[in-house]
Amino acid sequence: MDSFEFNKIAGAVLASVLVILGVANLTDWLYTPEEANPQAYAVAALEEGATGAGPAAVVEEVPLAVLLASADVGRGERLARQCAACHTFDEGGRAGIGPNLYKVVGGPHAHDPNFNYSTAMKSTGGNWGFEALDVFITNPRAAVPGTIMSFAGLRNPQQRADLIVYLNTLGSNVALPEAPAQTAEEPAAEAAPAE
Fold it and tell me: Which CATH class is domain 64-168?
C-alpha cells in the first residue's frame, strides 16, 4: 500500500471522528437541559392546629363469602379466557405452560400430576380453598414466593370471586361458604316529646 492510499484512509477516519464530535457538540448546544427546581411543585402544608378536609374515606372490605354469593359464573368464564394462554380447563386436559385447572377448587396446591410445579408450589401445603385461591389470584408471587407463575394478579375482588365461582363449576362443586348475616342498624332512639 503506498502512502497516498494510507493518507486517504486516515483522512476518512479523521473526518468521521470530526463529524461525530461536531454532531455531539451541536446537540449539546441545541438541547441544553436545565437543572430541575426542587421547589417547582410546592405542596401547601397545614398550619399547626388546622384541620384538613377530614380523614380519608375508608374503603370497606367486603367478605369473600358475600362476594362469592353474588358472583356470576358467566363473567368468571369470560375472565378465565385470559388464563387460557397458559391453563386448560377441561377434564383430563393436558398441562400447558401452567397446570390444568379442572377440579382445582378444594384440591391440593400441586393438584395436577402431569405438571412440573415449582419447588415453592410443591412445598406449599394445604388445599385450594376459596380463601387460598382469592389470595393467590390477587398476587401469585406474594402468595407463594418463588412461584414461576408470571400472572400479575387480579386486583378487583368481585372479578376474583367471579373467577373462583367459575373454577368451582369445573368438576369441584364445593359448597360456597355462608355469607355473614347482615346486621340491621338499630333505629335511633326517638326524642322525648317536649312538655
Answer: mainly alpha
Domain spans, the chain: 64-168
Determine the Cα–Cα distance for residues 132 and 20; give it in Å rounded to an integer: 60
Taking residues 44-61, what's their average pLDDT?
Answer: 56
* Diameter over CA atoms, the chain: 124
DSSP state of 7: H
Cα 75 off chain centre by:
19
Radius of gyration of the chain (CA): 32
Distances from the Cα of 31 to the Cα of 7, 36, 40, angstroms:
36, 15, 21
If phi over 0 gives left and psi between -120 and 50 gives alpha, with beta otherwise, what is residue 111?
alpha
Q: Are 65 and 179 in contact (CB under 8 A)?
A: yes
Whole-structure pTM value: 0.62
